[in-house]
Amino acid sequence: MAVARKGFKQILLTVLCDKRILAISFFFAVIFLFQVSSVNAITIFSTASITSVHTAPLGTHSFVVAYCDDTADKIAFKVYDTNGTNTTTEIDVDTSAGTCSYTAVGVSAFNSTTFVIGWDDRVDQDATFAVYDSTGALKTGPIDADKTLDTTAMSVQVSALNSTHFVIGWYDSIAGSSQFAVYNSAGTLKAGPITVDDDVGTSNSVSTSAFNSTTFVIGWFDGTDQDATFAVYDSAGTLKTGPIDADTAVGSTSLSVSVSAFNSTHFVIGWYDNVDYDTTFSVYMSSGTLATGPIDADSDVSDISYSVQVSTFNSTHFVISWYDGTDFDLSYQIYNSSSSTVLPIIDIEPWPTVANVPFKYQSPTSQEVGSGLAFCNRNWIIAYANTTTQAVWRSYTDTGGVWNGICDTTPPIVKISSPTNSTYQTTSVWANVTLDEAGSWCGVSLNGTANVTMTNSTGNYNYQMTGLAQGGNNARFYCNDTANNMNGSTSNVMFFTVDTIAPTYSLNQTNSTLAGTQIKHSLNWTDNVALSGYIFSIANGTSTFVNDTWASFNGGTWSNVTKTVNSTANSLIQWCVYANDTSNNWNYTCAASPFSFLTTSATKSISITVSTALTDGIIFGNIISGTSGSPALNNSGCGATTSTCYNFTVDASSTSSTGFFNKLATAITCTGGTCAFMESGSNTYPGTASYGANTTFSTTYVAISNCNSVSAGSHCYVRYYLSPSSVNSGNYGGAGKYSYCANATDGTTAC
Fold first, then answer.
1. Whole-angstrom Cα distance, residue 259 to residue 311?
2. How far apart are CA 444 and CA 452, in angstroms?
3. Are 536 and 558 in contact (CB under 8 A)?
4. Is 218 within 8 Å of 210 (Cβ atoms)?
5. Is the dihedral of CA 523, 529, 534, 539 positive or negative?
6. Is the pTM of this model over 0.85?
């Protein structure tokens, strides 16, 4: 309440232009003070003396305004588009209804094309209704719900329960009661009349509002008990809750109670407190439980207000409007259902210092829960008589701004700045979006989970997504503009990957250790996303590592690098591979402990070890049945080659020839095209018998060439060695082993 204006004289200058009014107030006390009132879109709907008015939405951007024309003593209505276009001419409902006051007319829509009007016919002393369509055509009625009123009844209100049924409530001045009945849109009585309070005295105030298709709340002023009261009924006329007094001391001339449902479970009730001169409201549950309140929207409206109206915008917000008899203006305030102030008191229109009685004929509207009809984006309109010869309506947004009556049905365009369709090497990524217009809210859903509200930083909506899973993720954004249009389309989905895991390796191997040869160094790699490439690094017999250039895996998993190693035997070769994945995570672990090996001589050799027991080397074999004696092993007669030559002698006591056999301790393979495993029956010249290249010698017994038949008392020589294509006599290895060593490539000796 703008108490600062109290005591000021106000002069209203009205400028008419295309049925739009600019209201300018001049205030002065000792000095003149100039002020322009809140200027909103304003449309004149009547130039008569309007003494009762009510409005109802027909859809997102159309509504019906019903009113009592005291100049012509008639009930009429018009249908408007909220942009100001009158879609019907004035339609007369009752041309002989007499004078009206307070809430003598009510209107409520079934759907976007059909609505019911209820009114107090003071001439016929009836509570009457009729059903019309949005073109102005009469569909049902008029039908009298109560034919026994008198000339002092001044309150009839209706509320659609759904697209086919409605409740009509009225004040019966003869019975001194508040009543209702339920009808369908064809005019068939379904329940009632039901008396909700049989002793309300001089009430003149009944209000109805549907929760759903079967339940509604009815509120009334009880002039006898001086209460603001309500009760909840179902469409069969059964009392569900109450009656409950919202205020037990509102005075004898309150004459104003208004109810409006938020949804199927909550409603707001507003009233004029003629004791405290307050405009007051409370929020209740349909069960009768007080949710919040009572709250005084204006604690100083004088003793001549008689006018409080409430209208919900949605399930959480509502407007309360009233005539302020102290400041002589029509005011409103917006609250949420928790009774928190959304907007402070706003004066719709001021008036000169004398009280403007027409202001009390006012009706705000935004939604009707029963039929599900509502203006777009929580916008609302208010119709009222602003002079004794004129009535207007204004359109507002839920933030108190001017609504041009045009519904913004286009959702905002969401521009995703982050994440991008890429890979992140972190499990914490910022979500950031902007809109192509002013927004009211944005949320993000990560991988299909519930939306999380994003922070609005001057138009940049952001939220830090943490604990992201490795691999593929997606973020879907939902954003509302200030008209409450939501864009949550699939085009607002961004797919991205989180990869913080480097590749890993296994199966490290080399195919040789021979000094001076080309050796392949191999590792097998795996990654949780995809491999990219690697860098091979080698310290080739030195302490310095040399890196190759980066090489791609090319869809494979092995890093195979062939290098010619140091030609010096027993050189330390160290090598390492650094690999990255497509997310550029690198594995450097082998840098701390590289793989290594020592080079070996490029020599081909074999060793045959002979034990003194002749069990692992050259073995005395088969003695012909019937003979006796044992062969002897000595080195006599082998000359300089005693370490590689054995002289087998058969005892003279043997009576028959004996065969000698060899046995290798371990299976060996002689490799290389020029390599041969040689066996000789001579102590001076090698090569009397040989085995070809790539021959494998097993550990089974093999007959000794040239020693297959030895007579008693005779002997046989045998020598074994590994030889290239040419052999130099006398190089037959060390003691106890039978070996010949030669370079595999040039034939020179190497041991």
1. 8
2. 5
3. no
4. no
5. negative
6. no
How far apart (Å, rounded) are the C-alpha atoms in residues 668 and 694? 10
How are beta strands 329-336 and 367-368 bridged, if at all?
A: unpaired
**Distance from C-alpha of 44 to C-alpha of 535, rounded to nearest angstrom:** 83
Beta bridge partners of 585: none
288-312 pLDDT tens trace: 999 999 999 999 998 888 899 999 9
| Both tokens assigned to 261 | 């449902």
Answer yes or no: are the C-beta atoms of 297 and 333 closer than 8 Å: yes
Residues 315-370 pLDDT 10s? 999 999 999 988 888 999 999 999 999 999 999 987 766 666 788 899 999 999 99
Which residue reads 């002979």 in tokens? Answer: 610
H/E run at residue 536: strand 531-540
- Max distance between CA atoms of the chain, in angstroms, equals 163
Cβ–Cβ < 8 Å for 339, 362:
no
**Are 629 and 650 contacting, i.e. CB atoms less than 8 angstroms apart?**
yes
Q: What is the 3-state secondary structure (H, E, C) of 71-125?
A: CCCEEEEEEEECCCCECCCCEEEECCCCCCCCECEEEEECCCCEEEEEEEECCCC
How far apart are alpha carbons 126 and 138 in whole angstroms?
Answer: 19
Residue 677 per-residue DSSP state: E
CA-CA-CA-CA torsion sign (87, 89, 90, 92): negative
Per DSSP, the chain holds a count of helices (H) and strands (E) of 0, 64
Answer for the pair 363, 55: CB distance below 8 angstroms, yes or no.
Answer: yes
Average pLDDT, rounded, for the chain: 80
Residue 145 has pLDDT above 60, yes or no: yes
In angstroms, rounded to a whole number, what is the distance separating the alpha carbons of residues 531 and 508? 17
pLDDT digits (tens, 9 = 90+) for 585-602: 999 888 889 999 999 875
In three-state form (DSSP H/G/I as H, E/B as E, the rest C), the secondary structure along 168-200 is: EEEEECCCCEEEEEEEECCCCEEEEEEEEECCC
3-state class (DSSP) for residue 639: helix
What count of other Cβ atoms lies within 10 Å of the Cβ of residue 14? 11
Which single residue is written with the structure tokens 């055509």?
137
CA atoms within 13 A on the CB side of 636: 6
Catalogue all structural domains in the chain, each as residue range(s) with its CATH number: 35-396 (2.120.10.30), 414-498 (2.60.40.10), 504-601 (2.60.40.10), 606-751 (no CATH)
Q: How far apart are CA 130 and CA 166, in angstroms?
A: 12
What is the Rg, in whole angstroms, of the alpha carbon atoms belonging to the chain? 54
- Nearest-angstrom CA–CA distance, 428 and 412: 27
Stated as kind and residue range, the H or E segment containing 654 is none
Q: Check whether the bond before 358 is cis (ω within 30° of 0).
A: no
Phi, psi dihedral angles at 390 (to 5 degrees) = -160, 145
Q: Mention every residue, 6+ apart, whose C-beta is less than 8 A from residue 238.
A: none
Torsion angle (degrees, nearest 10) of CA 418, 420, 422, 425: 0
- 708 pLDDT tier (thresholds 50, 70, 90): low
